């Protein structure tokens, strides 16, 4: 009862700019998983559903541990699905203050390589069928794979 | 004796480029804490002392939890010491493959704001006395503060 009241009162909602720039894949225990509308790179976001959190240290210790668990699960899924050379993981938030963690699959020779992706090149629209295949593959890895390590 | 043998056999060493670009602050249980030789921003690195680790998911589950604990401790210290507007946390590694986590204090209006710092502006040498004060303040917060949350 107390839990469900707390959940009802929780005013969290996805920041409008994140909502505009992404498609929802689904919710993990703590975070909403999103794919960014930019086909230059396989690019996911994890957004902890905690109202007012802007920094990782705004989460409490249990939430931070959960974020790391979810980050590892998502990073592993993205690495397997994309067969990338390197993952880029970042919580920046200089423009959109709502805490969000980028998980990006990089390949040697991709747009902007080896620089970080932000501002490297204009967004590229997704091919709807490729996006659908990508989201389906990520969902299968993130929600069906049981082990976390 | 066993410990000291293990330490002798541990082949981890700091990547030469990270060694060249930073000054050592000290070692946490898992990570070496460094300050980057660039006075444009208060800029720390956490480098887990695990040979061959390039991605966060190359660490095992216990090490990932420890990395999050150390990251939170360092981020809190940096936020307090710098009185920054925003922390930027990132594990990129497209150039230097050894796993390293950037923890950067940003201020509205700093060099490159609100863009990420990489490539924003040429490195600026530290004033040795300011650097010494900064390192002393970070050390005090990271090693003396007892609580992790």
CATH class of chain A: Alpha Beta
Give me the CATH superfamily of chain A: HIT-like
Strand order of the largest sheet of chain A: 1-2-3-5-4
Instruction: Please indicate the count of domains of chain A.
Output: 1
The CATH architecture category of chain A equals 2-Layer Sandwich
Work out the strand percent of chain A: 15-25%
Order of helices and strands of chain A: HHEEEHEEH
**Overall radius of gyration of chain A:** 15 Å
Features:
homodimer; 149 residues; alpha+beta; HIT family, subunit A; 5-stranded antiparallel sheet; globular
Give a summary of the structure in a few sentences:
By secondary structure, chain A is of the alpha+beta class.
What do these coordinates show?
Two copies of one chain form a homodimer. Chain A is of the alpha+beta class and 149 residues long. Chain A has a single domain (11-107, 121-140), classed as HIT family, subunit A, CATH 3.30.428. In chain A, 36% of the residues lie in helices and 20% in strands. Chain A is built from four helices and five strands, in the order ααβββαββα. Chain A has helices at 2-9, 16-21, 61-82, 128-144; strands spanning 22-27, 31-36, 43-48, 86-91, 101-106. In chain A, strands 1-2-3-5-4 form a five-stranded antiparallel sheet. In chain A, strand 1 and strand 2 (31-36) form a beta hairpin. The radius of gyration of chain A is 15 Å and the shape is globular. In chain A, 38% of the residues are buried. The mean pLDDT of chain A is 93. Strand 4 (86-91) of chain A pairs antiparallel with strand 4 (86-91) of chain B, so a sheet runs across the interface.
């Amino acid at each position: 009862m107390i839990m469900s009241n707390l959940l009802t009162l929780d005013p969290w909602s996805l920041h409008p700019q994140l909502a505009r720039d992404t498609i929802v894949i689904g919710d993990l225990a703590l975070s909403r998983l999103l794919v960014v509308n930019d086909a230059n790179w396989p690019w996911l976001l994890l957004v902890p559903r905690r109202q007012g959190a802007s920094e990782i240290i705004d989460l409490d210790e249990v939430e931070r541990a959960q974020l790391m668990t979810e980050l590892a699960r998502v990073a592993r899924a993205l690495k397997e699905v994309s067969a990338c050379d390197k993952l880029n993981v970042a919580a920046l938030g200089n423009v959109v203050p709502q805490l969000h963690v980028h998980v990006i699959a990089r390949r040697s020779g991709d747009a902007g390589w080896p620089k970080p992706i932000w501002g490297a090149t204009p967004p590229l629209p997704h091919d709807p069928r490729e996006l659908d295949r990508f989201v389906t593959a990520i969902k299968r890895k993130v929600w069906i794979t049981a082990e976390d390590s």
